[in-house]
Amino acid sequence: MSFSGKYQLEWVLLKLGKYFRIGLPDDLIQKGKDLKSISEIEQDGDNFKVTVTTGGKVIVNTFTIGQETELDSITGEKIKGVVQREGNKLKVSMEGIESVTEWVDEDTIVNTMTVGDIVYKRISKRV
């Protein structure tokens, strides 16, 4: 199974404590209305390159499964972590952030980031 492909963000789910909020706050929805987040994953064995483009902002991370790497966060900070593969999932822990990217089926990936009791889930479909 290969993660390789280009995926467009379809849905966001945010959980704050024990409450779920579907989507994002109205002001953020309005600001991001015309922005299409595209994730492109290139996989060559255990080596990955992930490019996320949102509007004019581009984040590129390269890593090898099981090796420490420095990853760019959505805030622009560089965070060290080791990405592990468990079946159809890529997992990484970075400074209190747990990130799991799951290949649900051939057309869907789900990225879940957890910080304490806050859960941010992004569902993307292959384009």
From TrEMBL:
<dbReference type="GO" id="GO:0008289">
    <property type="term" value="F:lipid binding"/>
</dbReference>
<dbReference type="Pfam" id="PF14651">
    <property type="entry name" value="Lipocalin_7"/>
</dbReference>
<protein>
    <submittedName>
        <fullName>Fatty acid binding protein 1</fullName>
    </submittedName>
</protein>
<dbReference type="InterPro" id="IPR012674">
    <property type="entry name" value="Calycin"/>
</dbReference>
<dbReference type="InterPro" id="IPR000463">
    <property type="entry name" value="Fatty_acid-bd"/>
</dbReference>
